[in-house]
Amino acid sequence: MTLLPLIPTLLVEKVANNLLHRDPESVERLQRLDGKRLRFHLKELPFEITVSVDTHGVQLSTSDESDVDCRIATEMGVLPELQDTANLTRLIKADLLDIDGDPMLAQQVVSLFKSLNVDWEAELAKTIGDVAAHWLGKLWRRSREQVKTQWQQQQRWVHGVLTEEKKLLPVRAEFDQFKTDLQQLRAQIERLERQCREKKG
User: Fold this and answer.
1) Mean pLDDT, each 10-residue run in order, the chain (201 residues)
2) Which of 2, 24, 48, 160 is 20 to 30 A off residue 128, Cα-Cα?
3) CB-based contacts of 139-142 (< 8 A; 24+ apart in sequence)
4) How many Å apart are CA 197 and CA 91, to the nearest integer?
């Protein structure tokens, strides 16, 4: 094992713990996971990453071979999908995920960071002052709203093109009608099968 992965691992660990310490509510979440260990084998990386949690934060290691509570083998692109329990069975069946141990542990570790509630404006104010921090916070919120609005408009446009202009996707009414027609056809086939059996009997 070379020392090559050590620097980025230490950097990620430092950033992760810095974020956790800025949110007072993370103390309780860390206590619930105290002593838990999780190992990731990501296909894109030539080494495994072990995540150990205690009341002070998380520790990352690329050379730890001790026992863990859960071992996950997957790809980097699949990691965001682990947040939703409903995805686990589908990913396992598609051979995109292999879990040995407690499958809920990965989601609990992800929720450590997903549930972060940091007052970034207050943190920024400590460095650049209240007025500048408030202005930057306002600018960030406005930019985020604009991006969200544009994304929603793009989604509506794409949906409109597919359903109305190009007729590539059926509209809801068409889909419901197709489903009704299919059910009626199935009923007719079942009736014909019954009649054939009765005539043979």
Assistant:
1) 61 84 85 92 88 92 89 85 77 87 82 72 67 71 77 73 57 75 84 78 62
2) 24
3) none
4) 43
Please give the Cα distance from 20 to 28 (Å, whole number).
11
Q: Residue 37 has what pLDDT?
A: 94
Helices (H), the chain: 6-22, 26-32, 86-93, 103-114, 120-128, 130-160, 172-200
Considering the entire predicted model, what is its pTM?
Answer: 0.54
CA–CA dist 115, 113 (Å, integer): 5
Would you state the pLDDT for residue 55? Answer: 92
Determine how many CB atoms are found less than 10 A away from the CB of residue 2.
8
Task: Confirm if 35 and 68 have CB atoms less than 8 A apart.
Answer: no
Return left, alpha or beta for 101; rule: phi > 0 is left, psi -120 to 50 is alpha, else beta: left
Number of Cβ within 10 Å of residue 7's Cβ equals 9
